[in-house]
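Dear colleagues,

For the upcoming journal club I promised to circulate an example of a predicted protein-ligand complex. I picked one with NAP because it came up in last month's discussion. The inputs are reproduced below in full, followed by the predicted structure.
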Amino acid sequence: MTAVILDGRAMGAEIRSELRDEVRHYLQQRGQPPGLVIVHVSSDDGASAVYSRAILRIAEDIAVSARLEHLPALTSPEELRCRLLLLNEDEATQGIIVQMPLPAHLSQKMVADSIAARKDIDGISTSSAGNLFLGLPSFLPSTAAAVMEILERSKTTVAGRRIVVIGRSNVVGKPLALMLLQKNATVTICHSRTNNLAALTRQAEVLIAAVGRANMVTAEMVRPGATVIDVGINTRPEGGIVGDVDFASVREVAGALTPTPGGVGPLTNVMLLKQCVQAAWQQVGN
Ligand code: NAP
């Protein structure tokens, strides 16, 4: 068997086209586009600056008004909190993202507690997490939302099926498991202390790897015909990136598979923008 490739770039292009229409509609009704602010506290221009620019490019493409606020690495907790509280009140800003990682003296919890839930388009606040836990509508961590979008757009049945998620982080594994449970999947969460991981993954009709270990999921760990979603992004010493799934061997066993690059990654930022547009509509009561 050779797996069907689930093309995240093509799905991302489809969603962008839908968002362009939505933003046009919003602009017609409100006279201004949805606004997004990315706050980046840093002294360097490293990986998260690249990530910020990628978000800005998508925003420009769909005509969301987005800007990057670069704050110096020595910004105090109080200064950052004040800035976020001002953005909460800013009528031109409907979505706020704070780039992680933060400098060590700034706490992620403080940031999560400072962004208003209605503008928390990456689902990092306790309020968003609490709503997700309770099965109430909320903004979702964008990577987990991207995985759900891939499953939905590829018409992968989730309800009633055995799904194994490898990884339990607060940004990917845990929220994803809750979203899948909400969609009536039977979910198993695996992590670094799981015994006999392969015995569990081989039972999965849908297997999702969100670990951060290059090529750790091999063909022997995959049930024939399973749908395999690879969230991992691992930088190779020789350059380029690979996923958590050994693409070459798994594609011979799986029924469907996301590539890396070109799978979950390209959808993650699109989902952020999608939630920004949603936030904008919600803030005008629509
Ligand atoms: P993380 O916080 O480091 O979590 C990794 C998880 O994997 C942890 O729950 C850990 O278990 C588990 N794990 C580690 N080694 C394991 C092993 N040998 N067997 C089973 N489980 C193991 O990472 P993350 O933020 O969730 O990200 C996961 C991956 O997704 C990374 O490669 C990251 O770069 C990628 N990512 C991609 C996107 C995207 O847009 N595509 C976005 C975010 C992240 P413990 O909890 O027991 O430590």
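Two points we might discuss: The radius of gyration is 19 Å. The longest strand covers residues 35-41.

See you all on Thursday,
B. R.
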